[in-house]
Amino acid sequence: MEGICIRGTGSYLPPKLATNEDFMKIVDTSDEWIVSRTGIKQRHIACEPVWQMGVKAAKAALEDARIPASELDLVLSTSVTSDFSTPGASCMIAQHIEAVNAVCIDINAACTGFVYALDMARMYLTSGEYRNVLIVSPEKLSRITDYTDRSTCVLFGDGAGAAVISASEEKKRFASYLRTDATGTKVLFARHVDKGNPFQEKQKANEFDGFEEHDNEYLYMNGKEVYKFATRVLPLAVEEACKKCGVAVEELKYIIPHQANIRIVKTACERLGVPMDKMYLNVERFGNTSSASIPICVDEVNRRGLLQRGDLVAVVGFGAGLTYGAAVFEW
Ligand code: COA
Known about the structure:
Blueprint: E1 3-12, E2 17-19, H1 20-24, H2 31-38, E3 42-44, H3 50-65, E4 74-77, H4 89-97, E5 103-106, H5 113-126, E6 132-140, H6 150-153, E7 158-168, E8 174-180, E9 188-189, E10 220-221, H7 223-245, E11 254-257, H8 262-272, H9 283-286, H10 293-303, E12 312-319, E13 323-330
Parallel strand pairs: 4-5, 4-6, 11-12
Antiparallel strand pairs: 1-7, 2-3, 6-7, 8-13, 9-10, 12-13
Bound molecules: coenzyme A.
């Protein structure tokens, strides 16, 4: 075994759309504000569970990879909006695609989930233990979005992406650079609220270390802090992953960033010194779908035939945690 390859990709977007005009009916906002600050025009909203979206994306990836689900050794789900606390989304998806020989693990690395999972897949595959890994990233951000808060509700959408990563006899370049700045846990989070139990008094205010100020389960975000963090780590992670891979940033055919906000990507581009057309973007159509955003893009790039064998691609993510990281791989 010499390396790893992306053997197949898939994605699924639920049919229901919410445009900027739709948001103008529920909060005080405008198409002009949303487009100029974020680049987003519409997003998809799911009326189905996360695992069902995951199953659809996973089946598409398996079909593209031309392998049966029974050949999967590992299913990694990166969903942060899973339907159940337990079992994991990976188990639900494995059941419904009949991945009868797979070990199932859920990873919570927020919007960086796919990049983290890619690195875990590499480690399992290069150990020689496993031959085929399915990464599946279904997200239903509408589940944790507060539709009365105009500063966050316009940003997020639902969808799923998936990829089959396999051991390869060919020596293909791959490197990743992963980091977590856990001092930033309060910048971006969605918490569980205790339901209480008969043995405990009500939780005291300080027991949640400040998080209790947000006494609901909706996503909280300090937009300005996230913006500063993202514009700093996006170029850094790409440069470090390229360094580890022994390639120059200029050699990359595409950089696929987490699709959060077009302004973040433009600033990162300037810092990296690369033209915007190196960045693959679809945030305009889908909004921020958390860990689904990168694999949805990878699937689009694949299905549009935009990559030739040997092309180098970087994927780069950042999100709650604060997690961040990039991976460079050869197509
Ligand atoms: N429509 C109209 N006005 C809005 C609005 C909306 N949807 N949301 C916020 N505003 C208003 C604010 O209330 C504020 O008004 P005020 O000046 O009267 O108080 C004004 O716009 C500016 O708000 P501000 O928060 O300073 O905007 P910003 O330029 O920082 O842009 C974000 C806000 C969220 C777009 C920006 O901070 C950002 O992109 N952050 C990163 C978000 C992200 O990518 N998160 C996901 C990471 S995984």
